[in-house]
Write the structure tokens for this entry.
Amino acid sequence: MRVVVTGTPGTGKTSATALLEDECTVAHLNDEVRDREFWTERDEERDSLVVDVEKLEAWVDEEYGEASDDADDADDVTIVESHLAHLLPADRVVVLRCRPDVLESRLLDRGENEAKASENRESEALDVILAEAVEEHGVDSVYEVETTEQSPEAVADAIRAVVAGDREPSAGTVDYLEYL
Ligand SMILES: Nc1ncnc2c1ncn2[C@@H]1O[C@H](COP(=O)(O)OP(=O)(O)O)[C@@H](O)[C@H]1O
């Protein structure tokens, strides 16, 4: 079973999924995109890489196996995390959420520049990643997890619950427009 963990940069994907590495396979895609050059061009203005999703998907399928039809195969779980992970086929999609002002602070504390932190704040307030995830996978496969007041350990527990099938799909439960 493939569970993808996506969300605006700063929502805590890397921190939470790192806590799951002893119990299932975890692929941190952003490292691979950079190291294996799964990108087509560099967006200088936004200081980011434009990813070749087809090339990335082929590599993930080759390296970790395809998303299985058996969505209840909880014994053989691969977690794929990245803010692009929802663009890949998946059995379940976890979308981490964070209140945009808190997200901006986390990114600034992490050393991101103000423009990038502000751009991601706006993206989170507008539900950009959630909307893309629902469009790709449908509402029945999307699980939002609030991380604003949660520790990475608590977020990891929420991801475990999605993997175990103990959590109902939840898309659109979060509204951050006032933080735009
Ligand atoms: N649950 C959390 N609560 C508070 N801060 C967090 C949490 N998860 C991550 N962080 C911090 O926020 C920043 C972004 O976390 P990170 O895991 O890199 O997010 P992402 O992988 O989604 O970009 C890091 O500095 C990290 O220490």
User: Anything to note?
Assistant: The chain has a mean pLDDT of 92. The two ends are 36 Å apart (CA to CA). The longest strand covers residues 92-97. The pocket of adenosine-5'-diphosphate is lined by residues 7, 9-15, 106, 109-110, 147, 150-152, 155 (CB under 6 Å).
